[in-house]
C-alpha cells in the first residue's frame, strides 16, 4: 500500500572483532539459555575431544604403520595397526552421530526458552511499542532470528568446538614431534588473522542491512495481504508487485555481498595451506636427510598428514568466525527486543483496591503521542460515576485518546487521572483494566467462530451468558446460521456492522462497571442501532458509561456532554444546556439534523 516506505537503518561505524556489546550479549545468552545445561555441554565437549584424539592417535599409528612397512616388514603388525585405525574411526563416527543429536537437542531447548521469554516480554510492552514497530521486525526476531541462533549454537558452534579441539590436539602432537617444523608451518597465521579481521567488519555491516531488509520485506508482505482490498480497489497491484520485488532484489544483493565478504576466507586459507605444505615438504625433506634431526621418512609423512588434518578444521574454524560475526548481529537484534522496557507498569506498592463505580477525574492532564505534536495541555474532566457521559467533537480532537488514557494504554505526561479519588497510576494495571468494558473503533476479530470471538473477553463465561450477550447485541441469529465456521483472517467474512455487533456482545458479556463506547454503533443501520441502543441502555443502567459519538442524536440523553476541539474542552453541559448556548455543539447538531434528518 506504499504507506510504509522501506526504512533503512544506517549501518553502525567500524566495529572491532568483539565489541563490549557483543560480549554482553553473549554473556546474556549464556547465562539465560545455556549455563543451566553445563553438565550436558561438558558431555558434548568430552565427545568432541575424543574426535580430536582419534586424529592424533591416527597420526601416531600411521607413523608406526609406515615404519613397519619401511623398516621391519612384519605383516601381522601392519594388520594390527589397520584394525586399530579402523576402530578409531568407528569411534569418531559414533561421536559424529551422538554430538549433533545432543547439541541440536540442547540448542532447540535453549531456543524454546528464548522464544517463550520473547513472547512473555512482548506481552509486557506498551501499546506504543507496537504502534511504532513494524510487525515484520517482530516476526523476524521471534521466528527467523531465534531459529538462526539455534542452528548456530547447536550445529555450527559445536562443529567449531570439535574443529578447535582437533586443531589443538593435533597441533600439540605435531609440536611434540617437531617444534621447528611446526613453527615453520604456522608462519602464515598472522596473515590469516589479518584477513579475518578485515572481513569481519564488512560481514557485520552487511548482515545488519540484510536483517533490516528481511524485516521490511516481511512487513511489506503483511501490509499487502492485509490491505488487499485497498490494493485491488485502487488498482495498485503493479505498484505492490514492484515494491515487493524491489525488496527481494535488495535481499538478494545483500546475500551476495555477504557471501562475497565470506568467500575471501576459504581461498585465503587454501593458499596459505599450499604455502605451508610446500614449507613442510621442503623443510621436512631437508630434516629427514639430516640424521641429527631425529625425523625419519615415516615421521615426515605422518607430520605432513597431521598438517593436512589440522588445516581442514582450521579452515572451517576460520569460516565459523565469519559466521560468528553475522550471528552476533542477529543476537544483538534479538536482545534489542528485551532492551525495550515497558513504561505502563505496576508501581511497587500498586494496589487493587478502588471503587470502579465512583467518579473519574482528569486533573491538569498533559499528553502527546510525539513531542512535536502535543495533544492535551491542561485537560480537566469529571466523569460522574454511574452516569452517562458523552464526548463529542471534530475528528482528531482527542476523544479516543481520553479513553486510552483512562485505561492506561498510555501514561499521562503530566497531571493525574483518578477513580474514586485514587490515582490510576497507583493501581495494578490488570485490576484497573478489569473495570472496563470497551467497544473500540478498531475491532479485532480472530479467525475463529463468532461464539469464540465473543467468549474471548471472558473465557469462563457460561453458555447462557454468551447467548444473552449475543441476543442483546443482535448477533445470535448469525451464530445460529454460521455455526462454528471461522470468520476468516481479521474477520474478513463479516460486514462492518456484524463486527460491531460482536464487539458490543463482548462488552455486554464482560459486564465491567465502566463501559466505554467509542463509535460503538456507527456501522449499524438505524433499526438495528435502535434495538442495540435499547440493550445498551438496559445493560449500562447504573454503570459509568462514556460514549464517544459523531452522530449527536445518540448522545442527546447523556447526563453530561463534553465538546472537544483540538485537545481542549470547548463546551460542556447537558444537551439542553448546549443547545441553549448556541455554540459549536448546537451548530453541529443543527447541521446533522439537516443532513441525516436526525431527530
Ligand atoms: N497511536 C497514535 N500515535 C500517534 N498519534 C496518534 C495516535 N492515535 C491518535 N493520534 C493523533 O492524536 C490525535 C487525536 O486522536 P484521537 O484518535 O484521540 O482523535 P478522535 O477525536 O478520537 O478522532 P476520531 O473522531 O476521528 O476518532 C489525532 O491528531 C491523531 O492523529
Automatic annotation (TrEMBL):
Compartment(s): Cell membrane
Signal peptide limits: none
Protein's name in the database: ATP-binding cassette domain-containing protein
Segments passing through the bilayer: 40-58, 78-99, 180-199, 264-288, 300-318
Record's keyword terms, sorted: ATP-binding, Cell membrane, Membrane, Nucleotide-binding, Transmembrane, Transmembrane helix, Transport
Source domain of life: Bacteria
rRNA-binding as UniProt keyword: no
Recorded coiled-coil stretches: none
Organism whose genome encodes this protein: Pseudooceanicola pacificus
GO CC terms in record: plasma membrane
Record keyword Membrane present: yes
GO molecular function, one term: ABC-type oligopeptide transporter activity
Membrane topology per record: Multi-pass membrane protein
Domain named ABC transmembrane type-1: residues: 42-326
InterPro entries per UniProt: AAA+_ATPase, ABC1_TM_dom, ABC1_TM_sf, ABC_transporter-like_ATP-bd, ABC_transporter-like_CS, P-loop_NTPase, Type_1_exporter
Domain ABC transporter as annotated: residue spans: 360-591
PROSITE patterns tied to this protein: ABC_TM1F, ABC_TRANSPORTER_1, ABC_TRANSPORTER_2
